[in-house]
Amino acid sequence: MKTYNIAVIAGDGIGPGVVAEELKVLDRVAERDGGFRFEYTYFPWGCEYYLREGRMMPENGLEILKPFDAIVLGAVGYPGVPDHISLRDLLLQIRRGFDEYVNVRPVRLLKGAPCPLKDVKREDVNMVVIRENSEGEYAGEGGWFNKGTPEEYVHQIGVFTRKGCERIMRYAFELAKKNGWSVTSVSKGNALNYSMVLWDQIFHETAARYPDTPTHEYLVDAAACHFVRDPGRFQVVVTSNLFGDILTDLGAAIAGGMGLAAGANLNPEGEYPSMFEPIHGSAPDIAGTGKANPMAAVWSASQLLEFLGYEKYAARVLEAIEAVLVEGQALTPELGGSATTAQVGDALVNKLDELLR
Ligand code: NAD
Ligand code: IPM
Ligand code: MN
To answer: Per-residue pLDDT tens for 218-267?
Structure first.
């Protein structure tokens, strides 16, 4: 039987709780199929590990992860460890170290999910944000000068390479071509006179190679407004690391909330493992209460199944989420229900069983 070796970094706060439900769903899919199985190896890396060991993961963490078929991540970050350490030394290190340069973040309003927008049709909230995930504003370059003096200043350098822009735009256009969708570039060339001017130029060059794909371009501020006022104009959105981060939380807000937003960090060449995660954080405000919605993590399991080539199961998992939302019996408090994380997970597994029968 085919075995997929999955590295599990459940992480901090609500991470372990939502990941447990995600793995239940993956296991049920595998059981139903009968032809493959998942083998999980758990890595207890995160903020507790940091407080014990003085680092977020072992020095050879990436070497340890490299042989796995994929990584499942919960969430990282907790009060007591500075965020710029906990996130940069674990999550961001994996994304960059494994050249997971594509961050696929669907913004899709599932049936039954609440939408705060007025006069917007459900089908109109249906786009995929392709976020550049390896460089840009997150390059981590810069310095801190005259520290602690009145003349203190910092440099936070954005790095936009031709190669980095070309490959993310190519990915976006290929995705659009496959599905007959448009591609929208979101940038900020009016203010960022080097990075976003190069970005725009490479977008035009790439678009010229896909003459049949409709394109649009917006400045990020205007795009934020359109996300809320007229989301139907977006299909594939390609944007930089930081803009993609912000726009996808906005995307989550219009598509059911943080409990329903997932993301896949892909190394499309398969040279390194790809990583699947909900886009939300460790939610310290509800950690330990059983109130976390596992649907975002479960959606990322659907992305993992698609990545492994099981498109049909990926679709069934989303249908299970939709069915549970529509029935409205097993919902966590942020969706107006009173179910626990595990009860929602059980409802999803039962629904999946029905759908796979
Ligand atoms: P957050 O996403 O953790 O929480 C924002 C709000 O959304 C909170 O009110 C929280 O209760 C709610 N929420 C998030 N996920 C939810 C879920 N599954 N179900 C129900 N409600 C949910 O963002 P934050 O508060 O800005 O960050 C908290 C910590 O997480 C910080 O340390 C931050 O750096 C980190 N963080 C980590 C990741 C990651 O690991 N991928 C992502 C974002 C933030
Ligand atoms: C996300 C998160 C991360 C990011 C943080 C925690 C570094 O917000 O995955 O959206 O900014 O990429
Ligand atoms: Mn984010």
So the answer is: 999 999 999 999 999 999 999 999 999 999 999 999 999 999 999 999 99
We find that the CATH architecture of domain 115-255 is 3-Layer(aba) Sandwich (3.40)
pTM above 0.90, yes or no: yes
In ligand 2, the atom with minimum distance to the C-alpha of 95 is 12
Task: Show the tokens assigned to 105.
Answer: 């973040």
Architecture of domain 1-106+261-357: 3-Layer(aba) Sandwich (3.40)
By alpha-carbon position, which residue is closest to atom 1 of ligand 2?
Answer: 279
Whole-number Å distance, alpha carbon 11 to ligand 1 midpoint, is 12
| 295 contact partners, CB below 8 Å, separation of at least 6 | 259, 260, 321, 324, 325, 344, 348
Check if the beta carbon of residue 188 is closer than 8 Å to that of residue 219: yes
Give the helix ranges, DSSP H, for 42-91.
Answer: 47-53, 61-65, 83-86
CA gap 339, 331 in Å, rounded = 5
Distance CA 105, CA 43 (A): 25
**Closest residue CA from atom 5 of ligand 2:** 87
* 3-class secondary structure per residue, 252-284: HHHCCCHHHCEEEEECCCCCCCEEEEECCCCCC
| Cβ(155)–Cβ(186) below 8 Å | no
Percentage of the chain lying above the pLDDT 70 cut: 100
Provide CATH 3.40.718.10 ranges for the chain. Answer: 1-106+261-357, 115-255
Q: Which two tokens stand for residue 332?
A: 């966590």
